[in-house]
């Protein structure tokens, strides 16, 4: 029985291990489409080899820069030759002496000036500037100096967040309901995530925060873990979304961690910041500003870590995919294909790892905020 | 850094914060609380079940020990009873034996006594018979002896002579 079981188990383990590879194999090929469509066309139109190469490099750079930014429309890919864009427009909401609400199709992919209630707006590098009917932008140091209305548009990122939020809500509320239906045993698709929920409780929350206080932080830790994880994974799909690699998103998450840490902190925590027990008075005075700075540095590090990891991952991946079109030889192209394939596999791990680290460190900070020190007795 | 700041999208930040905070509260109410409660409940249930199983096992062991003890007691009691019975039997047998012996002895004794008394009676009878017979004989003899004078004197002298010798 043991002998016959082993190969079977091995095969299953191998299959499971390779599952993400197969799952992603499609994604890599699909995401190639963006550069393929744009760059392949360029290759044909440019006659000289040198020009062609530098032009491709420029194109790749542009595609990458465009990719890592948030977008005011959801473009899947576009055809440069015909100028056709495939995707769908998103609503634009501006606060400019009242709410301006119109579709992003008015910008015509940044090519034309949008008009709303007598105001004219122009899209420049995914930023909306107020302009005149002709669409003139006065530039200084490469940045337009035109007035910028407050942009509350439902961008690609916002739409993705909404989708992820909806997905999470449906997934986990169905999991919650399945317990009641099935007498305390989960069922359905949500069941897949139950071990992760338990892992966060048993391995992240309880060891870092402590048995006594961990309950009030569980909702946040669970939400942030799945939120970051799902968004990271969404970023790896060929939809070309980069949400967690956007500093505004990680800033938002870090700010919430910061507020929760400091609003739930006990006397001990503040005591350790402003008047460190157990050290001489001059040291206390020196330590106070350092500790106070630490309060802000901690969430700042959280913000930068997640942003940089995902951002860099996307850049590296896109560059490697771009290399395929620069080499244009069977050896170089297949090598960079393999390389980008390997990197995308690693990115799947990074997606999970960064979610874990964000949750873990948040739990650590919460733990330090509610920790009950017994220094007085110890010294 | 400048690029980072200039790329910062305020709208995205606002939306993300609103949606995320809303999501936390929604999930808290509809997902995390019921999930964690259910999981806790289940864990408690498992813990209790294990505990009660352990208790049942212990009880079973106690019961078994009790049974063993009772069985043992019964066995020793039976052994004791058997022993008692054997003893009683032996005692009865020996008692009966003793009784019989005593009875026999007594009967022999009685028989002996009866024989003795019979013998005595017979002896007495015999003695009586012998004495009367000897008296008769003596009488006859004396009648013969005292029939002449000379014989009488001779006898007296002989008797006197005997007496002197004494």
TrEMBL record, chain A:
Coiled coil: none
Gene3D superfamilies: ATP synthase, F0 complex, subunit A (1.20.120.220)
TM region(s), chain numbering: 157-176, 220-241, 247-265, 285-304, 310-330, 337-358
Alphabetized Pfam families for the sequence: ATP-synt_A
InterPro entries on file: ATP_synth_F0_asu, ATP_synth_F0_asu_bact/mt, F0_ATP_A_sf
CDD domains to which the protein is assigned, alphabetical: ATP-synt_Fo_a_6
CC terms in the record's Gene Ontology section: plasma membrane; proton-transporting ATP synthase complex
Function as written in the Swiss-Prot or TrEMBL entry: Key component of the proton channel; it plays a direct role in the translocation of protons across the membrane.
SUPFAM superfamilies for the chain: F1F0 ATP synthase subunit A
Topology with respect to the bilayer: Multi-pass membrane protein
Phylogenetic placement of the source organism: Bacteria, Pseudomonadati, Bacteroidota, Flavobacteriia, Flavobacteriales
Signal peptide: 1-27
NCBIfam families the UniProt entry points to: ATP_synt_6_or_A
This protein's name: ATP synthase subunit a
Subcellular location: Cell membrane; Membrane
From TrEMBL, chain B:
InterPro entries xref list: ATP_synth_B-like_membr_sf, ATP_synth_b/b'su_bac/chlpt, ATP_synth_F0_bsu_bac, ATP_synthase_B_chain
Transmembrane stretches, start-end: 6-27
Topology with respect to the bilayer: Single-pass membrane protein
Coiled-coil portions: 46-125
GO MF annotations in UniProt: hydrolase activity; proton-transporting ATP synthase activity, rotational mechanism; proton-transporting ATPase activity, rotational mechanism
Keywords: ATP synthesis, Cell membrane, CF(0), Coiled coil, Hydrogen ion transport, Hydrolase, Ion transport, Membrane, Transmembrane, Transmembrane helix, Transport
Compartment annotation: Cell membrane; Endomembrane system
Function: Component of the F(0) channel, it forms part of the peripheral stalk, linking F(1) to F(0). The b'-subunit is a diverged and duplicated form of b found in plants and photosynthetic bacteria.
Recorded family membership: Belongs to the ATPase B chain family.
Protein name (database record): ATP synthase subunit b
Naturally occurring in which organism (per UniProt): Flavobacterium psychrotolerans
């Amino acid at each position: 029985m043991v002998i016959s079981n082993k190969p079977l188990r091995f095969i299953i383990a191998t299959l499971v291990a390779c599952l993400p590879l197969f799952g992603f194999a499609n994604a890599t090929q699909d995401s190639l489409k963006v550069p393929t469509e744009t760059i392949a066309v360029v290759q044909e139109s440019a006659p000289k080899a040198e020009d062609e190469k530098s032009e491709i490099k420029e194109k790749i750079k542009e595609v990458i820069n465009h990719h890592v930014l948030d977008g005011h429309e959801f473009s899947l890919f576009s055809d440069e030759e015909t100028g056709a864009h495939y995707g769908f427009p998103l609503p634009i909401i501006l606060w400019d002496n009242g709410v301006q609400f119109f579709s992003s199709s008015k910008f015509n992919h940044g090519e034309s000036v949008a008009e709303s209630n007598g105001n004219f707006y122009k899209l420049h590098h995914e930023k909306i500037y107020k302009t005149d009917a002709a669409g003139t932008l006065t530039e200084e140091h490469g940045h337009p100096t035109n007035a910028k209305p407050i942009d509350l548009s439902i961008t690609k990122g916002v739409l993705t967040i909404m989708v992820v939020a909806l997905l999470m809500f449906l997934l986990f509320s169905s999991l919650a309901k399945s317990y009641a239906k099935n007498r305390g045993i989960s069922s359905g698709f949500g069941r897949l995530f139950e071990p992760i929920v338990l892992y966060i409780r048993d391995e992240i929350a309880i060891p870092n925060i402590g048995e006594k206080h961990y309950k009030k932080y569980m909702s946040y830790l669970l939400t942030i873990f799945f939120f970051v994880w799902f968004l990271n994974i969404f970023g790896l799909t060929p939809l070309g979304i980069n949400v967690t690699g956007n500093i505004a998103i990680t800033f938002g998450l870090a700010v919430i961690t910061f507020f929760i840490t400091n609003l739930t902190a006990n006397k001990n925590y503040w005591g350790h910041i402003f008047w460190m027990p157990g050290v001489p008075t001059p040291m206390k005075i020196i330590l106070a500003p350092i500790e106070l700075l630490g309060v802000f540095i901690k969430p700042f590090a959280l913000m930068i870590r997640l942003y940089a990891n995902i951002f860099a991952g996307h850049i590296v991946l896109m560059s490697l995919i771009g290399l395929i079109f620069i080499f244009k030889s069977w050896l170089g192209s297949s090598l960079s294909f393999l390389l980008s394939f390997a990197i995308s596999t690693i990115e799947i791990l990074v997606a999970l790892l960064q979610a874990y680290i964000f949750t873990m460190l948040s739990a650590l900070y919460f733990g330090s905020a509610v920790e009950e020190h017994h220094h007085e007795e110890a010294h | 850094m400048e690029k980072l700041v200039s790329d910062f999208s305020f709208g995205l930040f606002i939306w993300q914060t609103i949606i995320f905070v809303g999501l936390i509260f929604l999930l808290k109410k509809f997902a995390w609380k019921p999930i964690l409660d259910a999981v806790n409940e289940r864990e408690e249930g498992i813990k209790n079940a294990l505990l009660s199983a352990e208790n049942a096992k212990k009880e079973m062991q106690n019961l078994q020990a009790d049974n063993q003890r009772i069985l043992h007691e019964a066995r020793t009691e039976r052994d004791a009873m058997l022993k008692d019975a054997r003893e009683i039997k032996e005692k009865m047998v020996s008692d009966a034996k003793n009784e019989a012996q005593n009875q026999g002895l007594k009967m022999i004794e009685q028989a002996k006594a009866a024989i003795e008394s019979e013998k005595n009676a017979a002896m007495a009878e015999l003695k009586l018979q012998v004495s009367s017979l000897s008296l008769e004989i003596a009488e006859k003899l004396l009648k013969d002896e005292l029939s002449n004078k000379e014989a009488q004197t001779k006898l007296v002298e002989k008797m006197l002579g005997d007496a002197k010798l004494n």
